[in-house]
Amino acid sequence: MASQLRRxxxxxxxxxxxxxxKAAASAADLVFLDLEDAVAPAFREEARGKAVRALNDHDxxxxxxxxxxxxxxxxxxYGDIIEVLTGARENLDTIIxxxxxxxxxxxxxxxxxxxxxxxxxxxxxxxLEVLIEDVAGVANAESIATASPRxxxxxxxxxxxxxxxGARVDTNFKPRDSYPGDFWHYARMKVLTAARIGGVLAxxxxxxxxxxxxxxxxxxxxxxxxGFSGKxxxxxxxxDIANEIFSPTxxxxxxxxxxxxxxxxxxxxxxxxxxxxxxLVDAAHVKLALAILSQxxxxxxx
Length: 302
Known about the structure:
The protein is α/β, with parallel strands linked by helices. It contains 12 helices and 10 strands. The strands form 2 sheets. The protein has an 8-stranded parallel beta barrel, surrounded by 4 helices. Strand 3 (64-68), helix 3 and strand 4 (94-97) form a beta-alpha-beta unit.
């Protein structure tokens, strides 16, 4: 699985100059300048130049620098890729592709990127993250997740998926009427399972009501429990919440350390399992401990 931190991915409209410096200085693991839904159609071509200047002129530190292009079914997609990459060159790390419905969508972007990189003489390969936000995308999630070696993450998008499946939801993508269980559990698990098959990260959907910190945290905890690596943030106030929830707790780190040490001691004595605090610790627990400690190690180096 990709090892990059993607606990928080901050959305920033590519036309809003005053937000660029704040986004660059934020604690988000990734910031994407949005050329798609956050920009009115009449300004989408103009937004490309603003995105290039933001990528080139600001100090982004260790933050991953990304843009979300328009869907490949629109007239803007190829221009987004060519103009932004030509202008930003090595200052662009990742392209987020929206409304991906099949593996060929990812292939199309990959091929175009390869052509532009070769034309520009770039040695650095742009990475990809893709949005699963359509019923066809959910159905084809596994093939999408394995469509390109550039791919770092699948992102679950509840907004457009609501429209695609005809769901009756409120403006926060919650079911309008009472529903028994997690309304989005199936789609989330499809995205998560596909991501794990492809060896990439799974990122949870945005939470539109940025004033509702408790609601955002609850959503994030549900996704983290399933195994998601992070969540979109549409407002800077959501960043710290996501970074905390998608990082191992001190208790988890301590328990993982104890379990790993105990297992290694047992293994040295020829045993395949042991107990810690009255609980079984076997090879499966070792894998879990290593995953937690690896995640904690990455977090402390950034």
